[in-house]
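Molybdenum cofactor synthesis domain-containing protein
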Amino acid sequence: MKSPDSEKSRDGVATRLRTVTITPPDTVPFGDVDISAMVIGEADVVAADAAAEQLAVRAEEIEAEGLRMRSLNLADEDLGRALVVIVDDRAAHGEDQSLIGPLVKELLEEAGFHVDAVVAVESDEVEIRNALNTAVIGGVDLVISVGGVGVAGRDVTPEATADLLDRKLPGIEEALRSSGLAAGAMDAGLSRGLAGISGQTIVVNLANSRAAVRDGMATITPMAKHVITSISDF
């Protein structure tokens, strides 16, 4: 009997074979052929090993790339143009010391937006509407208003915003209130602020505390990205 590593001659060429015997519970007939024993060429085994190694390397590369992409900050993305409207009587007269405007601008830029401007207007419905409408006409992707969303007599930002919206986005409104309460920003949780689409622009009203702004921006960014993509598809 020849050894498993025998040499068989085919057309004068010696081919080295490795014999692999498979022993099933019962002999499995295939027509008139007994396939209880199979012969696999050594070259096939080497090729299979090489292919397995290549697959393992590729799997590691894909995993590494996935980790790299997940670690990227949103600032590496270009989410579009934004404009900030601060609704506050003192800010409109240059007396605001809270620096809310620069904070919103910084958070927007960190998220990947290019901020065209930060403007301040008085708590007046006409002025607020004009500022928001200017942003929409200017073609920004996102306009954020800050302030005027409470229950005081001069809190009229939602009323000024309502007439501009073609479609409301109640999911964003609810998310802002819910996350605001969870973050301890009472003014965000009780906000009457609206969110919606005007033309090709997302309009969102935020409360004016620093906690409400920080939490609100963290909530808005992924949602705004999704909405902007959806709008651009049409």
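thats it. Helices lie at 42-71, 89-92, 100-111, 125-137, 157-162, 170-182, 186-189, 210-232. Confidence is low (pLDDT under 50) at residues 1-23, 67-75. bye
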